[in-house]
Amino acid sequence: MSATRYTYLGPAGTFTEAALRTLPEAATRELVPVASVPAALDAVRAGQAGGAFVAVENSVEGPVTATSDELVNGTPLMIYREVLLPITFALLVRPGTSLDAIKTVTSHPVAQPQVRRWLSANLPDAQWEAASSNADGARLVQEGRCDAAFAGEFAAALYGLEVLVSDVNDEANATTRFLLVGRPGRVSSPTGLDKTSMVVWLPDDHPGALLELLQEFAVRGINLMRIESRPTGEGMGSYCFLIDCEGHLSERRVSEALMGLKRICPQVRFLGSYPRADHGGRRPVRPGTSDADFAAASDWLARCLDGRGEI
Amino acid sequence: MSATRYTYLGPAGTFTEAALRTLPEAATRELVPVASVPAALDAVRAGQAGGAFVAVENSVEGPVTATSDELVNGTPLMIYREVLLPITFALLVRPGTSLDAIKTVTSHPVAQPQVRRWLSANLPDAQWEAASSNADGARLVQEGRCDAAFAGEFAAALYGLEVLVSDVNDEANATTRFLLVGRPGRVSSPTGLDKTSMVVWLPDDHPGALLELLQEFAVRGINLMRIESRPTGEGMGSYCFLIDCEGHLSERRVSEALMGLKRICPQVRFLGSYPRADHGGRRPVRPGTSDADFAAASDWLARCLDGRGEI
Amino acid sequence: MSATRYTYLGPAGTFTEAALRTLPEAATRELVPVASVPAALDAVRAGQAGGAFVAVENSVEGPVTATSDELVNGTPLMIYREVLLPITFALLVRPGTSLDAIKTVTSHPVAQPQVRRWLSANLPDAQWEAASSNADGARLVQEGRCDAAFAGEFAAALYGLEVLVSDVNDEANATTRFLLVGRPGRVSSPTGLDKTSMVVWLPDDHPGALLELLQEFAVRGINLMRIESRPTGEGMGSYCFLIDCEGHLSERRVSEALMGLKRICPQVRFLGSYPRADHGGRRPVRPGTSDADFAAASDWLARCLDGRGEI
Amino acid sequence: MSATRYTYLGPAGTFTEAALRTLPEAATRELVPVASVPAALDAVRAGQAGGAFVAVENSVEGPVTATSDELVNGTPLMIYREVLLPITFALLVRPGTSLDAIKTVTSHPVAQPQVRRWLSANLPDAQWEAASSNADGARLVQEGRCDAAFAGEFAAALYGLEVLVSDVNDEANATTRFLLVGRPGRVSSPTGLDKTSMVVWLPDDHPGALLELLQEFAVRGINLMRIESRPTGEGMGSYCFLIDCEGHLSERRVSEALMGLKRICPQVRFLGSYPRADHGGRRPVRPGTSDADFAAASDWLARCLDGRGEI
């Protein structure tokens, strides 16, 4: 059954798979590794999978632009969940390989900046080669095409490798954020600690447009959590923005802000409201912007129209 | 019948009466001059009159603070109409008085700045005395307590005076704006060229509050037409603001802005939406802020919640 | 000697005189009461007085528009000092007059709203008449033209009257703010707790201009203390703004903001930087906006231009 | 001589080399291909090269994050020139290879989205593999490790390949922007059509900080040309911003804005002011923000301090 199938960027043994398995529902889904982010999402678009699980940004390397571009372009998709996974690399080798025997090292390019310092300290002469995923790097080692691979420790067993060094990460607290993406559907109920994602295209030739866009949020007390510019493809200097903000589309402050964007921007793509994976940052909404405040103001307005604004 | 009675700042023969008579409905009302702006409005509050007609600002002298304060404080009232009246003064004297016989001149204090230059050029030695209204000044001349009064030409007949000089006004285009004020009631339908008035109290100890308040308008493309600060009476440095903005409370951009103010300010008093008396300034609403734009954005939002935002 | 002469709104015995006498330098000046605010200021303009001392606003009644208009229009003047004087009224009568013998009461119109509630409770039938000053009201009582006057208690002796009731004031903490105004001169040194006043004309036909004006202050962390709109005289709907802000023109955040206004507005009139009379509100400047922060940023910029921005 | 050496992302035959050769000074420099963006820039930092020439963004694929991260982190560098190069790909094969013989295709990952549609239409079954550069892809074809490579047409001769298909680009007007980067030095003189680049870190835990940052530009009439968020490495949700704005650091509106950022942000890295490569977009500066306006305002301020503001 396609609805019970989740695609993810494979092969098996990637951090993506490890993150996906932290979702309770993953236990009851068929998890299908695919070759690329577009492939994972196209399977969803084509109805061959109920969801696709893909990385969207890393706290060291930044956005996964393949994911951003899929969300921005083509048939619309919607985000239903996010997962944050701390990232530490293990250096995986064929059993028996020693550190000084390593001439070539591989990993996904996103991993490289996170191990670069370790590499220059410990394997200054090793040549680095790009793999299409960390797990694929492990496979290259298994096949003898490379001496060592940076990957998650969990990948060792899968590829018959051993962990030569563990906990390699230049940056403490490196984290990758993943999204569970599906076909657009009814937005699920707010949990009280939600996030809303969207893509916003700016009006042409309007220098202050980004500021105006941010003011739609600010005036309603909504904090932005992330803003990523992407080229629109219309030529150098033309950008759209992927934005994550606090709150859920069913909250009035959020819906009013999105309607504001919709009114002033040539295009807005709503990407979903979903529970936040970080539980630390719970902040009270700014005074005057809770749903209760909106409801009270709306009641007051109705009374004003009726000549009873002071009652 | 009290509902058919309109009070106005008397005595008869003031510019206020002249302005009031420009309203078609004035012909079928009992027009009652009273001694002060508060008295005019208190009659409405007490149900002894259906409306009160009072000056609110002059393009030379500025706000009529008695009117502002009545609108800000006490039992709420609502504005139903505005009238703009060009002001030119006549110098009224008892029949036969010549210019060089004038030792004392009177008028309402508001009139004085508008005739000051004329006075120093033509009657440099005359002593100016305050009258409680321009018509009252005419009465003082009639009673022989003063030699000349600045008042509307129409006051001459009423007080048995003659027009010695007409069209006295230091400033071309001096205009007074008057309001027809009543007890709060259902807001009448928009005419397409309306104005909305309100009083807004700022949150305490919040230096950027005025800016935030203005942004509630700006973000929704609403032009302010007037802002007047008034002391709250809570001590030096504490102000509230009387604001006139473009648009009608039943327009979404206006209602959303007012609800925004209501949510962030400790108090907002809605003073009415009513037809604009100036017909020249018809500007199209800013793109993205018409009621049609609001309705379209609202439809889109409903579709987004339902997973059909792109349709 | 004209430089040692200060004019003030007379006659003697007004609150203005009382406030003026709180200035240490008043002891060594010739204090000359004059008939009007314009007269007080014109004496300064004409070189007949070194300073003029005039009320500018009252915490109950609001602005003294005669003063505002003099500061806005005509030959420029500059503010050198401000004084805050708590206002309480005494009801002054000719010796022996009892409360029930009072048929007429007078005061300056500004005083009336502050005693209105007391009047309606204690002298509901007394007729109120305007005087050109509170002290002038006392004179009218002295001359027998009126039964009682609201004025400062200090006026009683001056006019041979007695205090029938003291401490009359509907609003606790009523305060009047006065300014010492002189011909423009070198701005005195900052005291660390200063205020800067100016008049700003908005660009024509630019709906967001007031917001932009306020942003010149906000972006530099400057709190506004007062904003008063005045008609420009160019017709209904055209205003300029008298603005008081925190800080001294010699502070960089203030000078940069004023230069910003000067660049975007058709006209800006600097009215002076002078010590604040309220000592309570000392707030630290917003982080990043002290003169030290400006100097550090300026040094950094010079290094940037020289390729040494990171040093 | 190291000063006359420019490094660039090699190998020879990349678009980078083609873009570099558009700079007149390239003719007199030793152009040295290196293996990575960090290597190109580290050679400059180490004094082994006078400049490094690297791609920074593509109008289809977006930022080259390796370049962004090098500019953000580590020993500071400065941008001296930018080049815009239209990008079209040629499909290069070993002489004699026909389209239906192609089983594997390679290119730099950045190229892939630009040829993806062409690939699925013309070579739907070919397997795509990543190369570390487009020229390196050509080398892989030369060595027989891959059947075809997308690269610039100019790479064919260099690697003994032939152009099977030319002008492949899914997006018309695809353009890559390159930067000439050097050690920090004196900023060169403005040309009248310049751009300024910087990195700005936001204050912690200050939700409105991005808006405030943009207001430093907006209040001075400066248009942003690009904003790219990069993770700070301090954990998920912490970003800095690479910003390109109109104007030159020696223009007052720009220097004042940068000093404003410096004052409110914990860190600002100036990356250079340099001539804009796009000549079409010459817009007049916003009224009130030219250097002449700044100079006039500054003169006015000096006169104000001296009591001669109205002269």
Automatic annotation (TrEMBL), chains A, B, C, D:
<keyword id="KW-0057">Aromatic amino acid biosynthesis</keyword>
<keyword id="KW-0028">Amino-acid biosynthesis</keyword>
<protein>
    <recommendedName>
        <fullName>Prephenate dehydratase</fullName>
        <ecNumber>4.2.1.51</ecNumber>
    </recommendedName>
</protein>
<dbReference type="Pfam" id="PF01842">
    <property type="entry name" value="ACT"/>
</dbReference>
<keyword id="KW-0456">Lyase</keyword>
<comment type="pathway">
    <text>Amino-acid biosynthesis; L-phenylalanine biosynthesis; phenylpyruvate from prephenate: step 1/1.</text>
</comment>
<dbReference type="InterPro" id="IPR001086">
    <property type="entry name" value="Preph_deHydtase"/>
</dbReference>
<dbReference type="InterPro" id="IPR045865">
    <property type="entry name" value="ACT-like_dom_sf"/>
</dbReference>
<feature type="domain" description="Prephenate dehydratase">
    <location>
        <begin position="5"/>
        <end position="183"/>
    </location>
</feature>
<dbReference type="Pfam" id="PF00800">
    <property type="entry name" value="PDT"/>
</dbReference>
<dbReference type="InterPro" id="IPR018528">
    <property type="entry name" value="Preph_deHydtase_CS"/>
</dbReference>
<dbReference type="InterPro" id="IPR002912">
    <property type="entry name" value="ACT_dom"/>
</dbReference>
<dbReference type="InterPro" id="IPR008242">
    <property type="entry name" value="Chor_mutase/pphenate_deHydtase"/>
</dbReference>
<dbReference type="GO" id="GO:0004664">
    <property type="term" value="F:prephenate dehydratase activity"/>
</dbReference>
<feature type="domain" description="ACT">
    <location>
        <begin position="198"/>
        <end position="275"/>
    </location>
</feature>
<keyword id="KW-0584">Phenylalanine biosynthesis</keyword>
